[in-house]
Amino acid sequence: MRIMGLDFGSKTVGVAVSDPLGLTAQGVEIIRRKSENKLRQTLARIEELAAQYQVETIVLGLPKHMNNDIGERAEKSLEFQEMLKRRTGLPVVMWDERLTTVEADRTMMETGIRRENRKEYVDMLAAVFILQGYLDYLAMKKQEK
User: Fold this and answer.
1) How do residues 112-133 score in pLDDT, each as one tens digit?
2) Do residues 62 and 97 lie in contact, with contact meaning Cβ atoms separated by under 8 Å?
3) How far apart are CA 130 and CA 5, in angstroms?
4) 4 with 16: CB under 8 angstroms?
5) Closest by alpha carbon to 134, among 95, 86, 76, 85?
6) Which domains does the chain have, with CATH numbers?
7) Do 21 and 122 form a contact (C-beta atoms < 8 A)?
8) Are strands 12-18 and 25-32 parallel, antiparallel or unpaired?
9) Vertex 95, ends 92 and 99: CA angle to 5°?
10) Sign of dihedral through CA atoms 4, 5, 10, 12?
11) Which of 5, 61, 91, 141 is exposed most, by the fewest CB atoms within 10 A?
12) Residue 14 to residue 105: CA distance in whole angstroms
């Protein structure tokens, strides 16, 4: 059972996939598009990756405001969720992604990745953090049973 994690941005989508046991998240790629509203190729690529990795569930980051409000970016993520469900036929779970980009940036800083190179990886790493948070949540729920 593999799960895919997505960090949906205005021009990029960071992609991560779990290992077959659903324990760890690994970054796969960053899907880039020229315009915010050009989503057909992005959806097609996600569909390809889902098939390639035999994904059963998609976890999509929900960028809420710190006060828990849903802003314009979160609205776009919810719209993208519906598109993903229609396109892939898979369940798409929304996951609170507050501070994942900050955490990804800090991790890259700590590992010595130069500032100008961080932009290259931040979306994929944020997808890893989104997915790992969800995997840890599932593991915790299993232990409670």
Assistant:
1) 767 666 666 778 888 998 999 9
2) yes
3) 6
4) yes
5) 95
6) 2-144 (3.30.420.140)
7) no
8) antiparallel
9) 145
10) negative
11) 141
12) 14
Do residues 105 and 36 touch, judged by C-beta distance below 8 A?
Answer: no
Below-50 pLDDT ranges, the chain: none
Contact, 125 vs 107, CB < 8 A? Answer: yes
Q: Which residues pair with 16 in a beta bridge?
A: 5, 27
Angle between helices 100-110 and 115-144 (to 10 degrees): 120
The amino acid occupying position 14 is G
> Amino acid letter at 31?
I
Could you tell me which residues are beta bridge partners of residue 58?
A: 4, 92
47 CB burial (10 A radius; 0-12, 13-18, 19+) = middle
